[in-house]
Structures are given as structure tokens and as C-alpha cells.
Predict the structure.
Amino acid sequence: MQVGFSPVADDLYREIILDHYRHPRHRGRVDPADAVVEADNPLCGDQIDLSVRFDGDQLAEIAFDGTGCSISQAACSMLCDAVSGRSREQALDVAQRFRAMLVEDGSPNDLGDLEALQGVRAYPVRVKCATLPCNALLQALDPGEDAQ
Amino acid sequence: MTSLDVATATLDVAAVRADFPLLQRRVNGHPLVYLDSAATSQKPQQVLDAVDNYYRLHNANVHRGVHTIGNEATDIFEGARTRVARFIDAPAEGLVLLRNTTEALNLVASSYARELLSPGDRIVLTEMEHHSNLVPWQLAAERAGLELAFLRVNDDGTLDLSGLDELLAPPTKLVSLSHQSNVLGTVVPLRAVIDAAHERDVLVCVDAAQSVPHMPVSVRDLDCDFLAFSGHKMCAPMGAGVLWARPELLQRMPPFLGGGSMILRVSLEKSTWSTVPHKFEAGTPDVGAAAGLAAACDYFDAIGMDRVHAHEQQLTSHLLSLLEEMDGIDVYGPHDMSARGGAVSFNVTDVHAHDVGTILDRQGVAVRAGHHCCQPLMKRLGVAATARASVYLYNTHEEIDALGDALAEVRRIFR
């Protein structure tokens, strides 16, 4: 498919984002799960239920269910892809660097598909769509983590 | 429709648009197409001038002291009360000037329902209320042991009135419902509901936030008991809202907020209250916004609310046709123009409303996207969110077409 040719498509709706939105990876629910996090954005109604299972220190299984815009759902799909099978520490590192890329002008390096979401930074009201699954993941990895 | 058509023919939209400075803006490189007036309207120069004039020449606190400027400010504030009362064809002694519809409905829920109703009494609402006409009643019900019941919404977006008689039976004491839905645009046959309610000695509170700005509304004709609306949705500044209530009800109701202005005599132990409606206006009011609201009433009466309504009906009809002709767009709410007004909710198939809103915004088209403070209605419709385009007197047919073009871009990106 052709990558979008309008400014909107160029800086926000990259084809890789639309692909994850149309064909989400890790859709479903891990059962039994070691942690289930329900994340809501009451402003726009985005919902993500993220469930994880650990095998020792390894994030053996991760899945999500939910409804929302392309940004929140694609970000969740990409995040699950990026951390599945990683150690808890590696997964935390990915989530923290992803969040830093969105809210602290952090470097988008070594984030794979997630790098496509850096265009969201130009849309302040949409940043929360992308951080919603990230906050859910941080909470699932470390229940002491502040969900904000 | 003939008289409406004639009226529309004489609404000079270009002249109206010239009154609104903000509509001259460009957004993201495109001329602004503002289709979010159901959230808040833009303001004409005449209203901005009235606010400016108040602060430049007449600013002082009201109902205090004896100096000249203070008297002028009081005259402006009390003049706004009578002006607004005339606009909605209601006795001015029942008109309480507040901040917005939400505050007005909270006042009724607190000072009427919570204070004057008894445990076990029932309040009837509808499934399509804005949270501001739901949550205050939930709070009152919880504190006073009241029961809530709900009229449902039909699949076509109209209100299901088949259960009305049953719901009006004892222990029902009050019905509170919107005149026009902010999501579906549905116009409720209020007069029939009010007549049926009054036959059973049930009072009716009307959320008129989406009707007073868009159609002629006469409190005397409706014969309602409470009516709430916001100035900011009818070209007035944010900060001026209205509760109209039957003066005899206001007499019986205890104050909502206590403080300055609302008292008659105060001792350290207790106080007595000022007369109606002043006993519900504690503290310094937003006099500038009230001046702007009075100017907005002048502005609308000079144009004629019949003409405003007819223009909006034409635009809405065009908007509905355009959306129905496009592939992959679901429109919510009645299609019959006699049962609806100018707020139109829709979704693009498989595209979330926020994505629609963002792509439209990039093309200068401003619409609302989300749950519109109506989560129960979203559940009824089976959607998480909708996009909503809403029209007003300053919108044009060309702007509706621009929305159509912008929606084609949404379809292209998400093809």
C-alpha cells in the first residue's frame, strides 16, 4: 500500500500504525495471568485491558483487549510485540524509553515499529492515546508504578 | 415550510459571518470550518463590545453601596435579567443568573430535589441526558433516598414515550429531560410530556442548553417548571448561565450557596434570605458575561430566532443528505427533520471518532469527537464514541461540503 501523501498521513498516520490498527498483534487475554491492568482514558473513552504471564523473569505471554482510536490500539499492539519474550528489565526499559520519546522528547532509537509513533508528539491531545497502553504495561511490569 | 423558506431566504449569512471575528481565522492552512457550536458558539462583535463596554465604563460591584458606577453596574446586571427573561418569554422574577446549565441543574437537584422531596420519591430522567442532567440527580438521590427511573431511546434516536404514563404515576415527583439531545439532535415533544406530567402533579425541569440557542422557546407556552441553559452556546460569553423556575418554587426552595448578596439579615447564629431570585445568587456575579448575554439576546431578536432555526434546518438537511450519500458512514439520530435539530453524530466505519476529528482538524474542520458527556447514550448506541458536527446561524452550505471533502480524506487514509 502507498504511504499516505497528505501532511496528516505523513506525520501521524504512518502505514505501519494503520497496519497494527487493522491487524493488531497479541489481541486477546492471557489466562491464567500474573497481572491484569485495566486502563481507561475517560476523556475519549479509550479502554485497554492488558494481561501478562511471567515465566521466571521472562515476560512469557502478553495480550490486550480494548477499544479506542488507531493510535492507542496500534501503540498497544506494537508495545506487546516489542516486549514479548523479553526480561522484565528489558521490557521496562522499552516502555520507559517509549514514554520518554512521547513526553520528554527522548530519542526514538532502537524502538522498532514504535518509532513510527513519534509523529504523535505534534498532536498534544493525542499523546495520551499513545501513553495509555504504555502506562498499563508499566503497571503490569511493576504494580508499584504510578499509573499516571 | 413555506414561511420558513421565506424567512431563510432573507437570512444574510455573509453579513452574519462578518460579525464574528474568529470565523475569519485560518486553521492548519485552511479557512476555519467551525462545526462545533453545540459545544460552544463563537461570539459576534456586538457581544464582545458589550463586555468591553461594561469593563471600560461601568465596572463596579453590584447590589452594594450607593456610588454612581455601582448603580450603573447593578442596572446592567438587572437589565440583563429582564432582557433574558423577555428572550425566553418568562417572568423575570423567576430568572436566576448563574454560570452555566450545569450549575442551574445542580441548583434544582440540590435545593428542590434533595431538600424538598421525601425518601422514596421518584425522579424520571432519560437515557440520552448529558451527564449534567444525570449526575446531579444521582447525587441528590443518594443523599435524600430518592429513586431514579429512565425513559428509553428508540433505535431511530427518538425518545420512547410509551412508558411515560406508567413512569409518571406515584411516587414520581419530577421529570428532568433535555429539549434537544446534544448527541442525536433529537427534539423531544416537550409540551406533550409537560401536559401529561402536570396532569399527575409531576413537575418538569427542562435542560434547554441545546434548544434556547437554536429555536424560539417560550417558557409561557411550554408551561415548564424549571428551565436551564447556558449563554456561551448562544453567542454570549462563557460564565453566564440561566435557571428559570416558577417563582413560587424558588420561594419554597432553600438557598443553594450561602454568602454575600443572598441575605436579608445576618447574625452570628443565623441568617434570613434575600428575595427571589437573589437568594440563589451568592457572591459577586459575572456582570460582564451577563451584559454579553443581554447583547446576544438583542442580536438574536434583531435576526429572528425563526430565521436562525430555519437556516439551521436547511443546513442540517444538507448535512444529513451528504453523510447518507457517502459510503461507510453511520449516522445516529432521527432523519426526519421535524424531529431533530442541528447536532449530527456519525462514525466512519472502522475509524475511531478521534482519528476522524484529528484528520478533519488538519483540514481546518472543527468537529467534536468523543462521548459528548453522554456515556449511557453511547452504551445504548453500542459505540465508544462518535464524531459530531453541529451547525449554527453562521454556517454555510459550502462549509458542509468542505466537511464532506475532509471526510473523503479520512476514508482515503483509512482505506
Observations:
- The helical segments of chain A are 7-11, 15-22, 70-83, 88-103, 124-141.
- Confidence is low (pLDDT under 50) at residues 1-7 of chain A.
- Strands of chain A lie at 35-41, 46-55, 58-67.
- Chain A touches chain B through 22 residues (CB under 8 Å).
